[in-house]
Design goal:
Elements (H helix, E strand, L loop, with lengths): L7 H14 L8 E6 L4 H10 L3 E8 L5 H21 L2 E6 L6 H14 L5 E4 L5 H14 L3 E3 L10 E3 L12 H13 L4 H8 L3 H13 L3 E5 L7 E5 L1 H12 L4
Parallel strand pairs: 1-2, 1-4, 2-3, 4-5
Antiparallel strand pairs: 5-6, 7-8
């Protein structure tokens, strides 16, 4: 029989499978969530490191370039084959815009919450930088252990990142939270209009608005034909500030 040559991705899958088969899967079950770029071995490396992975959810997003699409499809096929050979249940989630940070953050928080009480970990090695940052924040909000597989090392094991839990909206007091909600829901025509809706003086409101501007959660925009009059509106960061902890079940 002739020599059988395996490409580098298949070699890495074989090594990961051997490591996985040597682990004890009889007790605690772990859900692995992770972002996948063009290098399957970096995603699969987490399975080699983490014991008792019994379910996987992995996310991909690529540009419309034909080369990126082909590379992503090849990576997905390799991960599918590897996880099927391990007998691990898995789900592939396609995120259509590779740079939509807000969409990523919402989806990651929702899916982590959906996993319920099962132990969860997140491998954020692959994908675009907005995907990695969104995954990091989702894990910080929910206190989920986060891993990274060094891309510079062949067949490297996953490293747990020292990410601490933090409330994404720690910058918000109950009053500023209410201000953001009202801006989103009522679209006030001016700062005076917003102050009236809140039942406070505009001078009092101005201090809260300055803090929210400093946090990049609110911006003041000119009202056409109204001279110096400006109205408040939420930035994308402000919308995420409101949504993140709601999704996390904190507020």
């Amino acid at each position: 029989m002739g020599t059988v040559y395996l490409d580098s991705e298949t070699k890495s899958s074989v090594l990961v499978r051997k490591s996985y088969e040597q682990q004890d899967h009889s007790s605690v079950m772990t859900v692995l969530l992770g972002t996948l770029g063009f290098t399957p071995s970096k995603f699969l490396g987490a399975i080699k490191t983490l014991p008792k992975v019994t379910r996987v959810v992995f996310y991909t997003a690529h540009t419309n370039r034909a080369r990126d699409r082909a590379r992503s499809q090849k990576a997905v096929a390799e991960v599918h084959r590897a996880l099927a050979s391990f007998g691990i249940l898995h789900e592939h989630v396609v995120l259509h815009d590779p740079f939509d940070f807000g969409s990523f953050l919402r989806r990651f928080i929702e899916d982590i919450k959906k996993a319920g009480t099962e132990p969860k970990v997140f491998n954020l090695t692959g994908g675009t930088k907005p995907m990695a940052v969104a995954a990091t924040i989702a894990c910080m909000v929910l206190g989920v252990p986060t891993f990274y597989v060094p891309e510079e090392q062949e067949l490297a094991q996953a490293i747990e990142l020292p990410i601490f839990r933090i409330r994404y909206s720690n910058v918000l007091t109950p009053k500023t939270y209410k201000i953001l909600e009202l801006i989103r829901e009522a679209s006030p025509a001016s700062l005076g209009d917003l102050a009236d809706r809140l039942g406070i003086q505009q001078s009092t409101l101005s201090g809260h608005i300055r803090k929210l501007e400093d946090s990049a959660a609110v911006r003041l925009v000119s009202v056409p034909g109204k001279g110096q009059l400006r109205r408040p509106e939420l930035t994308e960061a402000g919308l995420l500030l409101l949504e993140a902890e709601k999704l996390a079940g904190v507020r």
